[in-house]
Amino acid sequence: MWHLLLLSLSSFASEDVSSAIKTLARANCQFAIRGGGHMSWAGAANIQDGVTIDLSQMNTVIVNDDEKVTRVGPGARWADVYSKLAPMDLSVVGGRVSDVGVAGLTLGGGNSFFAPRYGFACDGIGNFEVVLASGKTIDVNLHSNRDLFKALKGGNNNFGIVTRFDFRTFKQGQVWGGFIFHPYQTLPSQVQALQDFTSASGAGSDPYAAVINAYIFGPTGPEVIANQYTYTKPEPYPQILLDFTNIEPKISNSMRVADLLNITDEVGAGTPNGYRQETLSQLFGTATVANNVTIFTKILEIAEQVFRPIKNVTDFQSSVVLQPIPRTITSKGAENGGNVLGLDGSEDLVFLDLTIQWSLARDDLTINTAAESFLRQSIAYARSENLYNEFLYLNYALQSQDPIAAYGAWNQEFLRRVARKYDRTGRESEGREEGRLAFRYKDEFNAQLRSLTCGSAMSSLF
Predict the structure, then answer these.
(1) Residues with Cβ < 8 Å from 80, sequence gap 6 or more?
(2) 26 burial class (0-12, 13-18, 19+ CB within 10 angstroms)?
(3) Which of the two ends of the chain, N or C, has the fewest CB atoms closer than 10 A to its terminal CB?
(4) With contact defined as beta carbons under 8 Å apart, do 161 and 33 qualify?
(5) How far apart are CA 199 and CA 205, in angstroms?
(6) Cross-strand pairs, 354
(7) Is the pTM of this model over 0.85?
(8) Number of H helices, E strands in the chain
(9) Cα(338)–Cα(150) distance, rounded to whole angstroms?
(10) CA-CA distances (angstroms) from residue 78 to 29, 83, 118, 217, 263?
(11) DSSP assignment, residue 452?
């Protein structure tokens, strides 16, 4: 049984966080950090027999007078950000679900409807305000603590507690977006359209379009294909999306011109929060593959085979989501001070994102075994065809996956050096049983480790 204590910080002040860390450190008390919320499994943002510092009330969103920077608290969710910016015809590179937390998404990289134009959410940061394990508060940017600036962009929360995110801000009006649902039998047209779109986007033909291509499985097997399109101009049916939007037949179509909050609310409506609720549990897993019709088709064949035996699990539903990550996204990191994701912009990729929902604890082992099997078989096939990329998107990773290792040896060593430099106590990079911090260096740092663990609660596939 878990025994949890909660400390809530309601003001928008790094001094409060600093005081809390110093007090808990003097008491040799383990603690975890909870921001606005992202990850879904137990322990991602709390700790057994310790104190959880809840930053969710530190959710202020402040736009500078010149409208070029938006300062966001670590407890904010994207709804807080977009509701502030939309009336001003402004935006930032942010999440695609309004209820997801800013901190967790950004520190893990952060995919965005604006990614083809500006890169991942972490690439849109101009400055972090960070409280270190010592309690010292520093600004982290291209000109001050530059190595930590890079490490935080994908390195998650291993180095300190981010108490403010300063996002570069740009002019943005309404967008065209929504969902189109198709029968599963349209799969051949879907995967071909996905390959063609990703190639076109990677070539830079139109940086305003984003696609989420989801294949839904339920108790009766493959059920439906749900495509979410967002075009970040108020222009319906752009040329780059026609291979998708012309697919027939259609079951439903919610495409419209709207503000960004309206679109992200709709995406969030299909992605319940949390891991173990009264009526629903949820699991994520991920892999990255080349932009290739063959691997898309095989992955979906594997999904059918793996999910068929468990379709009678109570309230079972699974989605295999394919998300284009063209070179136009991954090349942006180097233009903005670098990140540690290990994606160099040399090829067009696709994120494979698995989500499974179910309701009864007695089915946990069955579901987890199926998820592991699906990912193992998909990755093995992709490797055999030389269509696998080692990258694992941290924000979608299964609890057993190790996304930091997938960033590559150089980035791992860089993160080690940064952790040693900014946390001489070792508190920030401590491993834990309750949840996965990105680092897996507990043995190496064992003599230094102390008490801090960090995380982001809640969840969303997108």
Answers:
(1) 59, 61, 72, 102
(2) exposed
(3) N
(4) yes
(5) 9
(6) 285, 320
(7) yes
(8) 13, 19
(9) 6
(10) 32, 8, 17, 28, 12
(11) B
Closest by CA position to 449, among listed 459, 439, 460, 461: 439
Give CA–CA dist 183/115, Å, rounded: 29
Q: How many Cβ atoms from other residues are within 10 Å of residue 239's Cβ?
A: 10
pLDDT at 24 over 80: no
Joined tokens for residue 64: 């500078």
Q: Could you read off the pLDDT of 63-79 as tens digits, one per residue?
A: 999 999 999 999 999 99
Say if CB 456 and CB 45 are below 8 A apart: yes
- Which residue has 């940017």 as its token pair? 141
For 181-205, b where at least 16 C-beta lie within 10 A, e where not — what string? bbebebbebbbbbbbebbebbbeee
* Between 160 and 105, the higher pLDDT residue: 105
The phi and psi torsions of 316 (rounded to 5 degrees) equal: -65, 130
Query: Hey, which bits of 132-273 come out as E strands?
Result: 137-140, 161-168, 170-171, 175-183, 209-218, 221-231, 252-253, 256-258
Whether 275 shows a pLDDT value over 60: the answer reads no
Which residue matches tokens 């801090």?
452
Name the pLDDT band for 17 (thresholds 50, 70, 90).
Answer: confident
